[in-house]
Amino acid sequence: MNSANIAFILCLAYIVGLLSTIFPFPWGGFAVLILGIVATLVVPRFWRKGPKPWIWLVAGVVGLAAALYFQARVPRPATNDISRETGAMEQLVTVRGTVESMPRLTRTRRAQFWFQVSQLNEVIGKDGPIDLGKPVSGKLYVTVPLLQATGLHPNQRIAVMGRLYKPKLVSNPGGFNFRTYLAQEGSFAGLSGRKVEFLTEEKGPKIGWWAIRQRIIRSHTRGLGFPEGPLVSAMVLGSQSVNLYLPVELKDQFTRIGLAHTLAASGFQVSLILYVVLLLTKGLSVRSQFIAGVIALGIFMALTGPQAPILRAVIMGAAALIAPLLQRKIKPIGSLLFAATFLLLLNPTWIWDLSFQLSFLATLGLLVTVPAIIKRLDWMPPVLAAAIAIPIAASIWTLPLQLYVFKIISPYSIPINILTTPFVTILSIGGFISAVLGVLWPIAGGSLAWFLYYPTHGLISLVEFFYELPGNSVAVGAISQYQLLVLYILIALVCLFSWWRNYWWFAGLLAVTLIVIPVWQTQTALFQATILESGKQPILVIQDKGKVTLVNSGDASTARYDIIPFLQHQGVNKIDWAIATDTINDDRSGWLTILGHLPIANFYSNSSAENGYPGQTEIQKIVQVRHGNYQPLTLGQIMTFGTTLTRLINSEAPMLQLLIDGQNWLFIGSLKADEQKQLLITEKFPKVDVLWTSGKRITAELLKVVQPKVVIVSADEVDLETLANVNQAKIKMFVTGKDGAVQWKPSGTFETTLELTEGYNVLL
After folding, report:
1. Residue 201 three-state SS
2. Distance between CA atoms of 628 and 574, rounded to whole angstroms?
3. Residue among 230, 146, 161, 243 at smallest CA distance from 198
4. At the fourth CATH level, which superfamily is domain 526-763?
5. Would you place residue 758 in the very low, low, confident or very high pLDDT band (cuts 50, 70, 90)?
6. What is the pTM of this model?
7. So what's the architecture of 82-206 in CATH?
8. Could you tell me if 397 and 489 are in contact, meaning their C-beta atoms sit under 8 angstroms apart?
């Protein structure tokens, strides 16, 4: 066996060793080592012309070493990391340090940037200032008002005043793991900033690659306007460089229909750059072509920044340039494996970076699947066959991972990718040329970019058209790691073995069956009630054998980050009954966000909030346009939602009674103690199994009247008097701020998302 094949096996062993870290340390690494030992003893008996036995043993050792190396490189807070300043958390502080990234626009219209800290200048607590000028280290996730971010750029010394916080654990099923995201970036705390102060005045011109990126963005925007200019810049530089200027809504549209990759500079752009460079230097020597290509790749990487997909694509491109120089035939899959191994040696934690995984899988799909698809499309013109084969191949290899992570599928993904390929090609090439010209002469770069207006506008119009189509994304629910593994095994079988390749439709049918049948069985059998953790906003989701009832939506942020991810995790594509009990207008804005993702068949609104709510007419219009039913929630009337019976007892408090699978639930809004006592006089309370409230205070009188077996509080905490009342009555209590989401099962059991080490239930 030659050295190239040995290197291939060792690179593969290294990657497998990193993947084994999905299991508890160090068992995954030892499992790879054991596999290497078994292969050493068994494989030579069946593969006599294969690798020598010692190679398998070395591969096992490499796998174990990779797992150990991963653990050594996992970011951990230093002893003086700012996240360890527990006394400063949630207090007003001023932190000094250096800006690490260009600001980007968040959904809340604030600017976010990474901040390397050096000093905790002051902490203003309840007892006055403490710890003045304390040296600290670490990296902060900082958000500030948009105007405060004006003029910020990397390597700038600033002081930010705001409140430190630690990211919370995932409190709802399917929720975004903000703590893990920060840890992957080497950060363990955040800062909600109020004010930014520049510590030094800059003299002379602002220099740096960030300044060149800004020059390109301004050049494109000057020639194309908004949002066409930032969109072209994103396709050339990557959306991370243009985040502050690219509308969040436009990014959502691209992502929702399966075009997110077009806004991430990666392999496609590298291929186009090399194609143009080699075309322009066609008459020159191989050495000159190599030099020109390396310079172009270097400029491209410097402009976009050292992101994992960019590094992978540049290394692959460099390998393609080196092969003719050495007069050797390039092996694309070997080059891809080498590129991945090299990157993972630089940073092994990238193995769990989603952008790295998707980029690697998409490239692998292009290398191993595109030729087979083009062969079947040989009756078409080559350009058209390639335009069809590329998105199909990339989608086949990335779809299982997307299902596993996002729990949704975009049915229009392949058609829209085929239709937009000409637009993306023109804009990528034209955008790169105008970008280079814009660096040298912004007016000329903007003038050249002007010719890209109609292709850019046409691309946006095409995206908006597909985005408005019904069913632009379908939730399939959570799939297991074993389902993910089987899906990729099926894909590999089709690519490697002729029998499976001839019967690809059979493999596809198996893959669909593997996903659809378990989801269908779960949906038709599942019955549960879930109270989501959403601060003080009470949210209840009842899943009744395929039918879904949603009580309250909260604000837009709650709907986007709590409700919609949970419904996607559960594979929900329609809300059958929606009940809005909120009487505060701001607590209803989430319905518009939900309606942007899911249809609502029947919408019931609390009559006390019908007047004066700005979004009421818009909600009603959207529901009715989609052939839904909109009506007030009638006081005292018993209504049937699936097998659940509901009655609005009081519209002002509000009070809502629910009969869920024979269990009597009572919801009461946030009421003060005197309001609860007055309500006890005016209303006749039923005895209930579950008392659910959004208030921090529950009086002993209320508990005595309703006599609940379980109390659930949708709040961050409860007061001490309520805790004493519940303890005295020997009632089990859950607080969503401490326990996370609370799920009730027909067996009568309650499950929580978070496991408490200390809290209210421990005290009972």
Report:
1. coil
2. 11
3. 161
4. Ribonuclease Z/Hydroxyacylglutathione hydrolase-like (3.60.15.10)
5. very low
6. 0.84
7. Beta Barrel (2.40)
8. no
